[in-house]
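Researcher: We plan to redesign the surface later, but first we want a full-length starting point. Tokens attached.
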């Protein structure tokens, strides 16, 4: 896709409005050119003494009418053209966001949030500027510029040619400077992305910074990036700062030419005094198109570069996609089968294939409860992520009710699974919205059951506004355990046949944890439940427990079977029993 194709549809869609805007813009240009004509007539009439009060009044009235018309049509073009550029901006933003949502988890592993934010703000703004003011400046440079030259030539060709001598210099200077500006601007953009990311990270990690007393270091670090950003901006200012005075100098050179040569022609009587004054006015009108010429190249270049960057993001293909032949799976019982599954985050690259999971074979019958334990980094979370195809397996197959997950439409596959991640994410809003995800179909009693099941009832009772309590940045700060339980209640409300839970009781006390596990156990036979946990109490009642180590299944069996040996499960279980003091029976 050529990047220009990105904006073409919006132009096509708004064709009538744009045409209307362009016609209004051209009318404004023509009317502007009319004013020097009025000045010429007034001056000529005055110098020849041919005018009276009524004549002057007529000229004055004409000027007011022209000014009113200019005002009216200027409003129309601004409304139409700048309005369209806002619609282009909106369209690209929606397109970008929709596309980002289709991209796979691996893309977000690679790309920094700050970069994406810069695309969503700066780049889109640049495209808006180029399609709005860029179009206006281009039109003015061409229409107003050429028409002014035409009107000047109508007065006197020789003088016009003389005045035009500095113009190629203006064009060349504009070209040179705009190229430099573009280069500088890119550096500013890159530095802005870095700065945004650094600040975002520090705000997200403010608790760690405080607890380690790193405030000073972090302020210095942000300052370092701020200074770099200022430096890059100053670099840009140096260029723009020399560009505009240079333009000013060159246009005034033309004025000097008119004063000298035009003055002489007036003395000689080749042109009238009115022509001389009108000529200077036309020159004044030429200044903007000349500036516009420089500006527009700059605007369009910036817009083009931003459009290229946006188009790069939009061209990124998600790794996890529906095959054309992928099918819907309306009903499932919920049996999961992993057939020789291997996975590496960087895929099967020749240089360093580092599998996180190796040859995992596993069958989870429908309606059963599987516990996954193992040391940190053994691949437990990764394994959960493979089931709803957050990532694709590198080797081997995963089957849901005997269907390869790659042959099922993603939307359909994921509708059968609910995944509660280790670090749940809450949206800005109240607790109710966060649990129901604003699904109006959820009945109040199912909501209460889910809250009960997630052992969240007591917590909500103590909240100032109960379910309506606002959480997150603008409200109450929740503990990790409370967040976990909100995410769990959210999951319990979805009718998915398979429930995937990543360490769901890692941040709650023993009693609450037991309540949650009892809720999950009560679902035996109705839902397939797969729990990753480092707390053995969460999985001890599971139908089957597997231990992962370095991406391989090293133990498998129910609690009693695994307790017979003295391997990872049994060892950790006994240790936790002592440390946490829970009752093994
Ligand atoms: P566990 O859940 O058992 O603690 P994980 O599945 O989270 O283990 O991680 C297994 C391995 O994969 C670790 O070595 C970890 O560093 C690596 N890993 C996890 N997530 C990613 C990722 N997004 N990109 C690259 N490597 C990852």
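Model: Full-length starting sequence:
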């Amino acid at each position: 896709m050529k990047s220009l194709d990105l904006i073409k549809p919006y132009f096509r869609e708004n064709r009538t409005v744009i045409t209307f805007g362009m016609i209004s813009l051209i009318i404004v240009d023509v009317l502007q050119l009319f004013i020097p004509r009025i000045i010429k007539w007034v001056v000529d009439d005055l110098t020849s003494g041919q005018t009276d009060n009524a004549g002057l009044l007529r000229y004055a009235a004409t000027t007011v009418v022209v000014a009113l018309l200019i005002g009216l049509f200027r409003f129309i073009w601004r409304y139409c053209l700048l309005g369209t550029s806002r619609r282009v901006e909106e369209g690209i933003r929606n397109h970008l966001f929709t596309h980002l949502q289709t991209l796979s988890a691996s893309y977000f592993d690679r790309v920094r949030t700050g970069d994406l934010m810069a695309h969503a703000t700066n780049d889109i703004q640049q495209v808006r500027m180029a399609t709005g003011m860029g179009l206006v400046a281009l039109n003015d440079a061409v229409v107003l510029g050429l028409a002014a030259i035409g009107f000047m030539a109508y007065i006197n060709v020789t003088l016009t040619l003389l005045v035009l001598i500095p113009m190629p210099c203006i064009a060349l200077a504009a070209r040179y400077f705009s190229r430099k500006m573009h280069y500088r601007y890119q550096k500013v953009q890159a530095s802005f992305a870095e700065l945004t990311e650094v600040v975002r990270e520090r705000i997200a990690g403010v608790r760690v910074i405080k607890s380690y007393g790193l405030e000073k270091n972090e302020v210095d670090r942000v300052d370092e990036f701020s200074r770099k950003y200022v430096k890059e901006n100053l670099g840009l200012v140096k260029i723009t700062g020399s560009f505009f005075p240079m333009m000013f100098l060159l246009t005034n050179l033309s004025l000097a030419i008119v004063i000298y040569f035009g003055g002489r022609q007036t003395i000689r009587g080749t042109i009238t005094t009115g022509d001389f004054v009108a000529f200077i006015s036309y020159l004044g009108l030429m200044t903007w198109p000349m500036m516009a010429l420089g500006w527009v190249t700059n605007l369009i270049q910036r817009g083009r570069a931003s459009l290229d960057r946006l188009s790069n993001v939009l061209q990124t293909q998600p790794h996890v996609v529906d095959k054309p032949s992928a099918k819907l799976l309306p009903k499932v019982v919920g049996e999961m089968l992993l057939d020789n599954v291997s996975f590496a985050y960087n895929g099967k690259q020749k240089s360093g294939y580092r599998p996180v999971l190796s040859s995992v074979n596993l069958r989870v019958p429908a309606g059963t409860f599987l516990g996954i334990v193992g040391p940190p980094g053994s691949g437990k979370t990764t394994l959960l992520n493979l089931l709803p195809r957050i990532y694709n397996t590198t080797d081997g197959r995963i089957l849901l009710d005997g269907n390869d997950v790659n042959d099922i439409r993603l939307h359909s596959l994921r509708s059968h699974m609910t995944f509660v991640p280790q670090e749940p994410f809450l949206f800005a809003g109240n607790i109710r919205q966060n649990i129901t995800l604003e699904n109006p179909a959820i009945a109040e009693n199912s909501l209460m059951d889910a809250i009960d099941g997630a052992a969240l009832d007591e917590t909500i009772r103590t909240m100032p506004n109960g379910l309506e309590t606002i959480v997150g940045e603008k409200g109450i700060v929740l503990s990790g355990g409370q967040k976990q339980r909100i995410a769990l209640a959210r999951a319990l409300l979805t009718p998915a046949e398979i429930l995937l839970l990543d360490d769901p009781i890692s941040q709650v006390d023993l009693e609450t944890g037991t309540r949650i596990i009892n809720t999950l156990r009560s679902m035996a036979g109705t839902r397939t439940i797969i729990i990753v946990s480092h707390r053995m109490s969460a999985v001890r009642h599971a139908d089957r427990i597997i231990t992962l180590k370095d991406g391989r299944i090293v133990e498998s069996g129910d609690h009693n079977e695994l307790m017979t040996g003295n391997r990872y499960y049994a060892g950790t279980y006994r240790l936790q029993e002592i440390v946490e003091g829970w009752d093994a029976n």
